[in-house]
Design goal:
Layout lengths: L2 E6 L5 H15 L3 E5 L4 H7 L5 H10 L1 E4 L13 H8 L4 E7 L12 E7 L9 E3 L7 E3 L5 H17 L4 E6 L7 H13 L6 E6 H10 L6 E4 L1 H14 L9 E3 L4 E3 L18 H13 L3 H17 L5 H4 L13 H11 L13 H4 L11
Parallel strand pairs: 1-2, 1-3, 3-12, 5-10, 8-9, 8-10
Antiparallel strand pairs: 4-5, 4-11, 6-7, 11-12
Helix pairs in contact: 1-9, 1-12, 5-6, 7-8, 9-10, 10-12
The structure holds nicotinamide-adenine-dinucleotide.
Length: 370
């Protein structure tokens, strides 16, 4: 059986890390064929727009997408292609697992949590303007609807149930944001009452950051609005080993797209230095979503063993802090090749030193689309 997947290489380090994921995908034999579509800087050069309609058409047709990072100009220029993709395809649920993998330098090796973020509205709705001609004041509007709160919170509880997780924590700022925060809080309390088997609690965003920096292992599934989720998922990536190893997924009602937490890291673009693991773990999430469980397990295991061996790892995993003994850094393509080489040969019969659920969010199956 084969799968057709839209592939957006993106820009910056995107083409290198998506190529790495393709090499590993080939090694799984899962039968993925790629429909490559350009967005971001290559699309501006070729089509004069960072998000051509053909990209959206491809993803709507295939209902599956693997994506590299795309640069967004800071403080001006075109709107974020990433935000536009989520809004135009209604990819409302951003799922970012933060699970520590193998490294000695992982700051909190017991970290195993999932940040579930509403990805279509809030402060990223794009409703913003200058108040006066002099640009001395500006407004950005946080649009929060009850419908979007309900569906992301329900998604988080369903994911927790399927993944046998024990707790869902809502993160908001309802003490200060008396309307948007309160809307999210009210929706959370009502929906939580329908899931008596799961502990539901709440944290204010500022307190949550402090709690996570002290004891991340106490948290399980975190559900929050767009901006808070964007910030928390980078924080949690740092707790679990860094941006180079943090994958993510976006779910709509019928479409699933997979992209790393990290951005286009322009300073490493074209140097074959970037860590390919985050993008390769996006492939793992894609395979799990497709029900290709053995292939997904093989990819995760091969990544784990490659990081644990520290023979062929990129610079970020070779730094003192991640390893107790210095190791030479390998290239992005060499690490991908090493992971791909291991994929068909890993032994799945012995358990990894972490529970299976940590390496395998069972929740990410296609039934979530229903
Ligand atoms: P970034 O994630 O690109 O980089 C942050 C730091 O992490 C940098 O030091 C970078 O070198 C390092 N890093 C990131 N990925 C790495 C990898 N795979 N291997 C090794 N090191 C890695 O964040 P930024 O610098 O804030 O953003 C750069 C651009 O990416 C911006 O234009 C931003 O808008 C965009 N961005 C895109 C996405 C996306 O496409 N989903 C997400 C975040 C940021």
């Amino acid at each position: 059986m084969g799968y057709r997947v839209s592939l957006i290489p993106g820009d910056g380090i995107g083409p290198e890390v998506t190529r790495a994921a393709q090499v590993v995908a080939d090694a799984t034999g899962a039968g993925i064929s790629w429909e490559v579509v350009e967005a971001g800087e290559p699309a501006i050069r070729a089509h004069g727009t960072p998000l051509p309609e053909s990209v959206l058409e491809s993803i709507r047709r295939n209902r599956l997408c693997l994506k590299g990072p795309i640069t967004t100009p800071i403080g001006g220029g075109f709107r974020s292609v990433n935000v536009a993709l989520r809004q135009q395809l209604d990819l409302f649920a951003s799922v970012r697992p933060a699970r520590a993998i193998a490294g000695e330098g992982t700051r909190f090796p017991e970290t195993d949590l999932i940040v579930v973020r509403e990805a279509t509205e809030g402060l990223y709705s794009g409703v913003e303007h200058w108040v006066d001609r002099e640009h001395s004041a500006a407004e950005t509007v946080a649009v929060v609807t009850r419908r979007a709160c309900d569906r992301i919170i329900r998604f988080a509880f369903e994911l927790a149930r399927k993944d046998h997780r024990r707790r869902v924590t809502a993160v908001h700022k309802a003490n200060i944001m008396k309307t948007t925060g309160a809307l999210f809080q009210t929706a959370f309390r009502e929906i939580a009452s329908a899931y008596p088997d799961i502990t539901a609690d709440e944290r204010l965003i500022d307190n949550m950051c402090m709690q996570l920096a002290k004891k991340p292992s106490e948290y399980d599934v975190i559900v929050t609005t767009n901006l808070f989720g964007d910030i928390l998922s980078d924080l949690c990536a740092g707790l679990a080993g860094g941006l180079g190893v943090a994958p993510g997924a976006l779910f709509g009602e019928t479409i699933a797209a997979f992209e790393p937490v990290h951005g286009s890291a322009p300073k490493y673009a074209g140097q074959d230095r970037a860590d390919p693991v985050a993008e390769i773990l996006c492939l793992e999430m894609l395979l799990r979503h497709l029900g290709e469980r053995e292939a997904a397990d093989r990819v995760f295991r091969a990544v784990w063993e490659t990081i644990a061996e520290k023979k062929v790892v990129t610079y970020d995993l070779a730094l003192p802090g991640y390893t107790s003994r210095p190791v030479p850094a390998s290239s992005c393509s060499a690490m991908a090749k090493e992971i791909a080489r291991k994929v068909p040969n890993v032994d799945l019969s012995t358990p990894l030193p972490r529970p299976a659920s940590a390496g395998a969010p069972a929740s990410l199956d296609p039934q979530l689309e229903a």
